[in-house]
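Appendix B. Chain record.
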Amino acid sequence: MTDNSPTTTDESTDKRAVVLASGGMDSATAAYVALERGYDLYLLHTSYGQQTEDRELECARKLAETTDAADFLHVETGHLSQIGASSLTDEEMAVADADLGDDEVPSSYVPFRNANLLSMAVSYAEANDCDAVFIGAHSEDFSGYPDCRPEFFDAFQSVVDVGTKSETSIDLVAPFVEWSKTDIAERGISLDVPYAYTWSCYRDNEPACGTCDACAYRLQAFQRVGVRDPIEYAERPDYADGPPRS
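Structure tokens predicted for this chain:
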């Protein structure tokens, strides 16, 4: 797994990268980091039955426009929803309110989702002679989601290396794997990431609820950097002093 801090690329190259574009702020920032590093972008967005899939798709398409992506692939897959066991995809499970100090795996965990998404991304990358696959996972993710841990990405890099053609070389890049959400917000603001066109809420397409885990971490990040989150919320609790996962 490649895990470098963002660097500036001044010269134009013919490098290509697939970015897993969820429609959220982390993947949007990852896309802008890849763009800054000189990659032509191939964005992959997946709808898998999540409650806010329509809004997420809209935001992913907007990201393709703002980054002038070389290609945008939207894949609809129902198997994760059919498998269930996640409040993101199971209508009978409630999305819990945020508890930023809880280190337990939350109900929003979609079993082994990142392995499913990265498999599609690597297929897409190999078919288009891409050099890298970017994913926006970060440190506050991996305390609650086992498929966001650095060890998972290291292991998946080995899968990529042995499971693709001998002439294929694809780096799995998780640039924020040791970063907090606040770090990502700071970096994204410096890159002029259009966060108004991103969506994080687990519950609602508009306005964002402000009280689920995803909203809480997003609001906390913006509050800590002293910038108002540009999307609309039903509630904007003060999370600036809330305990982050560690």
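Further analysis of this model is presented in Appendix C.
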